[in-house]
Design goal:
- The chain folds into two domains: 2-51, no CATH class; 76-134, no CATH class.
- The chain has helices at residues 2-6, 9-18, 25-32, 42-51, 58-97, 104-107, 117-134.
- It is mostly helical and 135 residues long.
- The chain contains seven helices and no strands.
Amino acid sequence: MFEEKINSPAVKAYFEVLGLDVWDAWSFFKLLDLDDGGDVEIEEFLMGCLRLRGTARAIDVGKLIHDQTWLIRTHGKFQTYVEAELKKIQEQLLWMAGVGPGTPDNARSTSTGSFGFRNLRNRTSNSSDTNAKDS
């Protein structure tokens, strides 16, 4: 429904008068729907149109680059933290199951890095094979 309305000649002419270049209706809709509610209220529409008028200035592009760089760096730090915490949990579970090396102190190490579920499955299946051979 939104795409039909936005692509009508009258709406295109209105946007042209406002200085809005709307070539991708869906992207424009997402930019207007600030609360991600799936609807664009009249207030969101008006504020969005005012905010998106004209062309981007160098300061706008610079701010976007700065914000995106910060987000990437912050996300990377968070990912590293989550992977380290997941590794600790996996090591503790292996120790509790009796298939991991060491003691609970080793299971609480703060080492970082990727430790996927596939590795966990391989380690537990290999340990089961070893335990079966010992029996």
